[in-house]
Amino acid sequence: MTRVVFLLVPHLHLLDLAGPAQVFSTAADHGLGHTLHYAAEQEDVPTAQGIALRADPDLPALAADDLIIVPGWRSYTLREHGALGGATLDWLRAHHAAGGTVASVCAGADALGRAGLLDGRRCTTHHDLQDELARRYPRAAVVRDVLYVMDGRVVTSAGIASGIDLALQLVAVRHGPAAAARVARQMVVYARRNGDEQQASAMLRHRSHVSDAVHRAQDLIDTRFCARLALTDLAAATGLSERTLTRRFTAATGLTPLRYQQELRIERAEHLIGQGATVESAARSVGFQDARMLRRLRARASADAAAVARRHVRDTAGDTGP
């Protein structure tokens, strides 16, 4: 079991807490092995929205696989909020030093900064607080106008709802994008946004259609995208012929079932490579027999993205406005 501990600071924003808590609670409901714990320096914690929360005033002992998340609080300037006690900051530092991951939402980045965990790292926070965060922690590299930043085992996100994106990303990193997509769909979240990347997750950006049969096919692919999937099996699961399924799938998503599966594999492989895996091991993990196909598909995806960027530049240059 992985423990997710939320460090509650007085006048925290409810959605900064509730969004990530709902993600990990839903993940636990799906059997992903998380338990949630709420800790604070005081037993009763007031929130910015007026309701008080009850937390454990004893900071728990943690294992390296556990996660600490610091939700943000209402503060027009970071310095307006009273500093956390030395024991709490030591607890944050010790967990990270022992191999654990620490994360923050919105102003919660200031708690990580006080603990010295932002020094020499990329980080972000709510757009209203970015300049002050950069002034308070000049050794940090504050990245502006992004949803979240993952720098090793220090993860920071922007304000309020971006905590959901951060939590879904952490689920995707630990359990794969299919697990994150299942959690997102359970929460009725439209998309799992990817940090400073503009595109949504491949698992969700092709879900805006209203075809039940295609959704059923996608559900099957989402859960088994690393395995060999025959078109006959997909068709049987949807009650359609192979030809009809392919036609409807392409009309609904813009992709064939095979191309959709390949996109999921590429995205998962990119996650693994970003976490230090080799291309060869990532390719095997997502179902390719060797790395050659993965390299070809990544090259094709890069070429397609470059072509789209060139068209955008050309179209923009040609649009002189009224």
Automatic annotation (TrEMBL):
InterPro entries (alphabetical): Class_I_gatase-like, DJ-1/PfpI, Homeodomain-like_sf, HTH_AraC, INH-QAR
UniProt keyword list: Transcription, Transcription regulation
PROSITE patterns xref list: HTH_ARAC_FAMILY_2
Domain HTH araC/xylS-type: 215-312
SUPFAM superfamilies tied to this protein: Class I glutamine amidotransferase-like (SSF52317), Homeodomain-like (SSF46689)
Family matches, as Gene3D superfamilies: 3.40.50.880, Homeodomain-like (1.10.10.60)
CDD domains in alphabetical order: GATase1_AraC_1
Name the UniProt record assigns to this protein: AraC family transcriptional regulator
